[in-house]
Amino acid sequence: MSTQSTASTCCYCGVGCGVLIEHDGKRVLDVAGDPAHPANLGRLCSKGATLHKTGDLAARALYPELRLGKGLSRSRTDWDSAMSHAAEVFGRTIAEHGPDSVAFYISGQLLTEDYYCFNKLARALVGTNNIDSNSRLCMSSAVVGYKRSLGADAPPCSYEDIEQSDCLLIAGSNMAFAHPVLFRRLEAAKAADPSKRVIVIDPRRTDTCEIADLHLAIEPGTDVALFHGILHLLLWEGWIDRDFIEAHTDRFDQLKTLVRDYSPAITAQLCGISEDDLHSAARMIGTAPSFLSLWCMGLNQSSAGSAKNNALINLHLATGQIGKVGSGPFSLTGQPNAMGGRETGSLSNLLPGHREAGNAEHRAEVAEYWGVDALPANVGLSAIELFEGVRSGRIKALWIACTNPAQSMPNQTLIHEALATCPFVIVQEAFFTTETCRYADLLLPAASWGEKEGTVTNSERRISHVRSAVAAPGDARPDWAIVCDFARRLEKQLRPGQPSLFDFTSPAQIFDEYKALTAGRDLDYSGLSHALIDTLGPQQWPFNAETGQGTARLYSDGIFATDNGHARFVAEPYRAAQETRDAQFPLILNTGRLRDHWHGMSRTGTAAQLFGHVEQALLSLHPDELRRRNLNEGDLVRVSSRRGELILPVESDAQISPGQAFLPMHWGDRFLKGLGSNVLTQPAFDPLSKQPELKQSSINIAHAELPWELFILAEGRVQERFEAIRPLCESLDYLGMGLIGRDRPALLIRAAAATPPDTALLAQIDTLIGLDNGPVLRYDDAGRAIGKRVKIEDGRITAVRLTGETAARNWLRGVWQSGEADAELRRWFLAPVSAPPGGASNQQDKTLCNCMNVSQSQICAGIERGLNLDGLKQELGCGTQCGSCVPEIKRLISSLAVPA
Ligand SMILES: Nc1nc2c(c(=O)[nH]1)N[C@H]1C(S)=C(S)[C@@H](COP(=O)(O)OP(=O)(O)OC[C@H]3O[C@@H](n4cnc5c(=O)[nH]c(N)nc54)[C@H](O)[C@@H]3O)O[C@H]1N2
Ligand SMILES: Nc1nc2c(c(=O)[nH]1)N[C@H]1C(S)=C(S)[C@@H](COP(=O)(O)OP(=O)(O)OC[C@H]3O[C@@H](n4cnc5c(=O)[nH]c(N)nc54)[C@H](O)[C@@H]3O)O[C@H]1N2
Ligand code: SF4
Ligand SMILES: [Mo]
């Protein structure tokens, strides 16, 4: 069968890289970076480059499934029955309880056309503003920041500015992990011009710091104080642009008065940094010919998220560093189409075309365009309020699409209660495995990456055409098509006899209807169409019909999107995070991304290769914090916050400051029993953006006394076995699940309990992983509750189960990985202890270079032999493909290399 190539985009982050999908018309075979796409020019990161290895069919939602009553299980149904049922329940709920008794919770990963249909459905047909998206957890503080300072929600810069800037401030962004291809572009530019200055502001020393001339490890949540302290110094030194301030801005005097209080001594103390470092930062910013800032969740996910955004933009306005090459405030968007969501009005307070739901004129404009009498004026619920409304019973029918709130929202206990009690929950998902799907009364299978068509806007306002390469599996359908099918049925109840508002047959047609709503607005892309993007390539808005071209940079003329064309300084004092350290909860928990995983891992969690870098949930703490508590790496701790408790192993990490802890956000209840990372985090939110404070929750930890341990490694059928074993393990106190093995994927489980579980559980697990038959070595010491099971087929281990004590687990993994079951293994097997044979390494290794499969131990050995980065690249091949591992290799070199 002939191989074809379809140009599309990566479905992960907001860099929006172009990918070439290699396929045979039926299956995706490979992906490559698209050299013609301006975002990445052919590059991909470790996640983009492995797209074709993810999305296991065994995890896909294939057919609509309906549950006819709580407590019953769902059964397969057809689209016609599913849609009629949904329209009937929504129609009845609206009739009985009014339009605000239903709600839609959607996602920054939908395509622009999907969003448009959802918005039209909620606001024009149902008549509610209860439509919000996971961008509330992500970008809503940036939306408020841009609007307050500049008048419109528009990042003014281009990716080229990253390469062209003389001084970059990276605040609360770990772009080495989260926006890797942009980080590669910055690395290359800095290598070409080492005079470029980079400042990183992050309480953790992340891999992004590998490129920094200055890292300010501020106390969590103190960014506003820092930015005001920097402005104080810029004023003192005369490093501001008075002409620009005079001609193009308002309200500077108020801010000048406020920042007088942020003297270097006070700022340094509030932020926990040295005055020298503060002076250095101000000097770099104040004396640079061009100054660009990049920021992400370290600023947005905060109860002071809006204030942080505006305090940073203040620095650009005060120095006149905006609208010029290499300058400007440039927020990095998280999700691939969070920008499209903002454009189409997919937050409860917005309307399409950067309009406001709270603005009567805006409502009238959109209502007229849609041909309806009016749009609802009631204030819609934002994500946190929406789920509180579900729990309190105010929301009686909830539609969730393309997001997994039972993993990603803070305060998971409340979210799970809400979903369990909601009378009717629709989940529109590509993978049936997510935590949220468990609560679906109606599960609607959605087409996913490579299978659907539409448009997305990336961080630099660039709109790409997302193309489908293969058909969706089973009965899965594109999101827009599901929405329109439902809407046409609901119209029969709510607008009988009137022409349909949802008579769309293609995404291009939806785009053409929608784009007119951007005409005359700041983002105007009414001049674009799918066909034009195909001809011209991806384009940056604004792009209107008259100019017929995209716009690389906004505000070059010094005219801003406010009523009088002036940008506005925002003067708000520093306010501490909601939760700070206290006697009861003495640590601040920070959460964020890993390099190779994506959010709740519905996609990346199906590829064993992507667990090579980090394979299980670990709580990272500074070595001093472990020492103080007599904890060793791998020990299980009970982590508690004001909202919940979680058991998981600790790891020592000197990149985390004492008094702080870090837990990746990816682990949900499937991978980490106990509702996952977000059982600990708090729902407190910023008063304006309503974005929750996901980066700072206070916690305590205590050693978890769980003497009975379980370790399982089982090769083959990983997805199926994962789904079968996970629900069996509810009785265990700790349960961490993962995958390992690149060429021979295996399921990996570590668990523990206060007392041994029922033997029936172990028997069930044995059956599921094939330890009940075939060539299995068995050792049982009932008195000490030690059990060993090892299956050896063709001279190699294929399955292991240790119970009671699991001291040999890392060593056994190594033996499994080596592919040879030797005599030493048999001797260990017969010994009455679990500990690995004397002298054998029990260290856990990890894969640093995912592309070339190079482990940390190989790289460390190379460094000890005196190899530098180039030497390692030549000898081991690491870092020569996507480059995602290069910052970490550099860090190892600087920590291990013996000075010559
Ligand atoms: N690999 C990978 N990449 C992704 C994603 C993914 O899941 N995996 N998700 C995408 C999405 S949706 C998003 S939103 C982005 C997120 O991208 P980032 O925001 O870059 O990633 P995070 O790890 O969430 O957080 C960034 C940093 O904020 C720091 N931080 C915590 N508190 C503070 C503070 O008070 N002040 C400052 N200055 N910094 C603080 C954390 O230590 C962390 O290093 O990533 C996108 N890219
Ligand atoms: N503690 C903590 N929590 C956080 C964060 C944090 O930093 N710390 N970050 C927050 C941020 S910034 C974000 S963006 C959120 C992300 O949180 P979520 O939105 O919950 O993240 P995903 O797991 O990406 O959810 C997307 C879902 O859509 C499904 N899907 C994929 N393709 C399609 C499709 O084409 N159609 C449909 N219908 N479904 C599809 C996927 O299988 C997946 O389950 O998490 C937030 N939660
Ligand atoms: S940087 Fe990586 S994850 Fe982000 S769009 Fe590009 S390839 Fe995808
Ligand atoms: Mo995000």
UniProtKB/TrEMBL annotation:
SMART domains: Molybdop_Fe4S4 (SM00926)
Keywords: 4Fe-4S, Iron, Iron-sulfur, Metal-binding, Molybdenum, Nitrate assimilation, Oxidoreductase
Acetylation recorded as keyword: no
Residue ranges occupied by any 4Fe-4S Mo/W bis-MGD-type domain in the UniProt entry: 3-59
Top-rank lineage group of the source organism: Bacteria
Cofactor(s) recorded in Swiss-Prot or TrEMBL: Mo-bis(molybdopterin guanine dinucleotide); [4Fe-4S] cluster
Pfam family, one: Molybdopterin
InterPro entries in UniProt: Asp_de-COase-like_dom_sf, BFD-like_2Fe2S-bd_dom, BFD-like_2Fe2S-bd_dom_sf, CT_Nitrate-R-NapA-like, MoPterin_dinucl-bd_dom, Mopterin_OxRdtase, Mopterin_OxRdtase_4Fe-4S_dom, Mopterin_OxRdtase_prok_CS
Chain segments annotated as coiled-coil in the UniProt record: none
PANTHER family: NADPH-FE(3+) OXIDOREDUCTASE SUBUNIT ALPHA (PTHR43105:SF9), RESPIRATORY NITRATE REDUCTASE (PTHR43105)
Family membership noted in the UniProt record: Belongs to the prokaryotic molybdopterin-containing oxidoreductase family. NasA/NapA/NarB subfamily.
Protein's name according to its UniProt entry: Nitrate reductase
Organism: Halopseudomonas sabulinigri
Lineage, broadest ranks: Bacteria, Pseudomonadati, Pseudomonadota, Gammaproteobacteria, Pseudomonadales
